[in-house]
Amino acid sequence: MTKSLKLEEKLLNVCLKHQITLGAAESCTGGALAARITQIPGASTYFMGSIVSYTNRIKTRILGVPTKILEQYGAVSVPVALMMLEGALLQFSCDIAVAVTGVAGPTGDTPKTPIGTVIIAIGGKKLNPKIVTLQLEGDRQEIIQQSVRRILEELLEICDKNW
């Protein structure tokens, strides 16, 4: 009986096969994506790292998200996710990157961005950015884990189709 591969193992295999490098900018997942990817031996061959930009100050200072964009749209928005993506691509000089921002709860929700709102941006040198907006349910940990799972699924699909 063959063991079924975890998403992060499949991603490692696809990235190695196509020689793809990956970087990440995480906010609401707080490094959970990087932690899951790096559980697999060999991840360092393709995974450049993750910037956990949990505050707006780090989004601005390290990822280059303009303060004006944060003030105009809020941290949980498509424009901010796209700027985080751009910053990750620049900081890691990688082929593909992912950025995630959202509200995992139990606090921080607003009428415009309720708990469970998660925005994912994935793009790269050869790719137009893909935006995925989710409205997840569950407690904080469930929202984080669902977000990470969806990111891994999206990365697998994009890497497999575009390389």
Note the topology.
Elements: H1 7-18, E1 22-26, H2 32-37, E2 47-52, H3 56-61, H4 67-73, H5 78-92, E3 96-102, E4 117-124, E5 127-135, H6 140-162
Parallel strand pairs: 1-2, 1-3
Antiparallel strand pairs: 3-4, 4-5
Helix pairs in contact: 1-6
Strand order of the largest sheet: 2-1-3-4-5
Instruction: Indicate the percent of residues in helices.
Output: 40-55%
How many strands? 5
According to CATH, the homologous superfamily is CinA-like
CATH third-tier fold name:
Maf protein
- Written as H for each helix and E for each strand, in order along the chain, the element string is HEHEHHHEEEH
CATH architecture: Alpha-Beta Complex
What is the level 1 CATH name? Alpha Beta
Question: How big a fraction of the residues is strand?
Answer: 15-25%
The biggest beta sheet reads: 5 strands, mixed
Distance between the termini: 30 Å
Radius of gyration based on Cα positions: 15 Å
Q: Which of globular, elongated, flat, extended, rod-shaped describes the shape?
A: globular
